[in-house]
Amino acid sequence: MKLTVDRLHITLDRTPILREVNLEARKGDIVGLVGPNGSGKSTLLRAVYRSLRPADGVVRVGDDVWALSARAAARRTAAVLQDGGGNTTGLTVTEIVALGRAPHHGLLGRDGAADHRAVQEAIDRCGVLPFADRDFASLSGGERQRVLLARALAQRPQLLVLDEVTNHLDIRARFELLDLIRATGVTTLAVLHDLDLAARLCDHLVVLHKGAVITAGLVLKVLTPAVLRDVFGVRATTERHPDGVIRVVYGAQPLADDGTTDADSTAVGDGTADADSTTAGADTTPDGDGRSAEGAVR
Amino acid sequence: MIVAISIGAVDVPVGDVWGIVLHHVTGTGPAPADPALDQIVWNFRTPRVVLAALVGAGLAVSGAVLQTVVSNPLADPVVLGFSYGATLGAVLVITFGGGMALAGIGASAAAFAGAMAAGALVFALGQRRGRMAPTRLVLAGVAVGYVFLAATSYVQLQATPNELRTVTFWMLGSVAGAQWDQLPTVTVVVLATTALLSLFGRRLNALLAGDESATALGVDVNRLRAVVLVLAALLTGTVIAVSGSIGFVGLMIPHLVRLTIGADHRRLLPLSALLGAVYLVLVDLLSRTLDRPNELPLGILTALLGAPFFLWLLRRNKGLDSV
């Protein structure tokens, strides 16, 4: 299902966290949300999985998520978050995956054949079967994330929201998890810190900086040296390897304190430099090609 | 339970007990031959055993849901201040209620009011802008508990030695004063709240995944927390009012069930109720047989018997190593 975020403003304790954020993910798209710490990525996700009510603007997953009940919204959107499975001591892996069926039942609902099928399918798909009866706490990091992904798939969602799901995983586990996510075919909005992984997983990237969308679009178009410098504060270039993999190549020297380098000093539009001013909305911030951020991610 | 009824200061053969209970419950069978025996079994022992079962069930269920909604394995009616509220209410009546011979009833009502007051305070202080964060709830409960405990201690200083003995006995809990007319209310509250809380089982399971994940699983976390806290306070207040403050059952029984059959609330709550009931019936049985004809307060035995077994189970369980 298509995800649309339309002119979203979010304020926490009177501090504006997100300003005028627009983004769109078409059915089946994997959209990556990248940006430095504190740029508002997780906050944006919370608005999408209906945990945080926006001050203004709309999140649509088919319908406005705040016009849906919590349960109805959770039947469309599933999330794998950083709370890492919470405190599930005493629940087996299968029971944790079965939590994904919660939004499909009211107070009197009992597990039926459809629930068992959804749980089994999610377990199979994520390769969780070998440890389905174990305690969550006894699993490795990679196994845990696969269990949580299985829980999300058991919800039978039409949108997946992922917050830093590759954190603390070894490199092989990361790739396996990304492949699993890609194979689901479900529309996905994923926050990723690692830009190489983001480039590997995502069709499109949205760059968030100080609560506003700086640029959005195809990976190579978005991760320009100027964006990497101005938003992420690193000297780097992006290149496509002959085998098709997109890599970010980081420079040997750190940036000078004033954030300038010799090259590409003004490649990103004016909007970026003063992104912390309240007027730097996504609609008006041109990216490297002069397209609006909203238009870049169709 | 029949066996528990048969044992006491006067031992009654199990067969006779069965006959007497059957006669009263179904109205069939021969009338009891010995009126004194009938009196002991039906008017004293039976309500007492039934009350012990209800109180054990209530405390265990309350502890189980509290541990989940405040995400803290140490939570129970004592930690959240409910028990101290009830104690203050009861102690006030025992000490200042004058020479009321019927202090039992007055103390119960006051204890219930005290538990509700503590619950309301924790509820009000544990939230900020409509959001109830688990840690804030626990700390509010602990603080409220200390305030009530301080007030209780002060009141105790004003008590006569005789009143003080009653107070101490009450604070350690007993079902010796069980009467038939208390039972309907307690039964209805314990059964109804346990049933209601069990209906929330799936959502309570989701809450184990963390607040944010539970929200993404379609649970209105704040509302769930509020509803469960109110039900737990009602349940706790009701059983403490008729039994005094019995510790350890609410803390231990739910963990015992989790460690043996798992944490799924749809099984955890009914089984905690069952195990809590059995445990308190046994403890009550011991309390009146260990030191015949004297009686020991329940609170002493619940911990003395339960703690070693619980510790053994903790050491045996491997799942706890990594958390």
Automatic annotation (TrEMBL), chain A:
Chain intervals with Low complexity compositional bias: 258-287
Point to the regions of Basic and acidic residues compositional bias.
Answer: 288-298
| SMART domains assigned to the protein according to its UniProt record, in alphabetical order | AAA
Report if keyword Nucleotide-binding is assigned: yes
**Xref: Gene3D superfamilies:** P-loop containing nucleotide triphosphate hydrolases
GO MF, any single term:
ATP binding
What ranges does the record give for the region Disordered, renumbered to this chain?
Answer: 258-298
Keywords assigned by UniProt, alphabetized: ATP-binding, Nucleotide-binding
InterPro entries linked: AAA+_ATPase (IPR003593), ABC_transporter-like_ATP-bd (IPR003439), ABC_transporter-like_CS (IPR017871), P-loop_NTPase (IPR027417)
Start and end of every ABC transporter domain?
Answer: 3-235
- PANTHER family from the entry? ABC TRANSPORTER ATP-BINDING PROTEIN, HEMIN IMPORT ATP-BINDING PROTEIN HMUV
Name this protein carries in UniProt: ABC transporter ATP-binding protein
User: Lineage, please?
Assistant: Bacteria, Bacillati, Actinomycetota, Actinomycetes, Kitasatosporales
TrEMBL record, chain B:
CDD domains under this entry? TM_ABC_iron-siderophores_like (cd06550)
- Chief subcellular location equals membrane
List the transmembrane segments: 49-66, 102-125, 137-157, 226-256, 268-290, 296-314
Report the coiled-coil segments: none
Compartment(s):
Cell membrane
Q: Which Gene3D superfamilies match?
A: ABC transporter involved in vitamin B12 uptake, BtuC (1.10.3470.10)
Q: How does it sit in the membrane?
A: Multi-pass membrane protein
Name the family the entry cites: Belongs to the binding-protein-dependent transport system permease family. FecCD subfamily.
Protein name, please? Iron ABC transporter permease
**What species is this protein from?**
Streptomyces spinosisporus
Q: What is the lineage of its organism?
A: Bacteria, Bacillati, Actinomycetota, Actinomycetes, Kitasatosporales
